[in-house]
Amino acid sequence: MAVHVVEDDPGVSDSLAILLEHLGFEVVCHPNAEDLFRSAPPSAKDIVFVDLILPGISGAELIRWLTGLKDPPRIVAMSGQSQNTIDLQLRGIGEMNIIRKPLSHGAITQQLAAIRS
C-alpha cells in the first residue's frame, strides 16, 4: 500500500510526506494531477491525499477521475477554502473524506484511522 500526496505547495507536501513516512507509510509525492497521471494508477489499497486547488487539472477533477477507476483508491481531499466552496467543487462526487488546512497531526491520523477501518 502506498500513500500518494498530490499537492503543489512543496512545504505542505514535504511535511505531510515526513509525517506519513513516520507513521510507516510508503509515500509518493506529486506536484500536480498530470504528474500522477504519468505514473501507474493508484490501487484500491492505496490512499490519495488531493489538494483541491492545483495548477492545471483541479483537485476536484482528479478526484472524479480517481473515483471512476475500476478499483478506486481511498481519497482524502485537502482544502483551506470555505465549506461552501468545497461543496461546490465536490458536487456530485458523493461522500468524501475532507481534511482542512492548515493540516494538523491529529486531523491526519484521525482521517487515516477512519479510512483504514
Automatic annotation (TrEMBL):
Positions bearing 4-aspartylphosphate: D51
Keyword Ion transport: no
SMART domains, alphabetized: REC (SM00448)
InterPro entries named among the record's database cross-references: Bact_response_regulator, CheY-like_superfamily, Sig_transdc_resp-reg_receiver
Record's signal peptide: none
Transcription listed as a keyword: yes
Span of domain Response regulatory: 2-116
Keyword set, alphabetical order: Phosphoprotein, Transcription, Transcription regulation
Pfam families according to UniProt: Response_reg
One record GO biological process: phosphorelay signal transduction system
SUPFAM superfamilies: CheY-like
UniProt name for this protein: Response regulator
Provenance organism: Rhodoplanes roseus
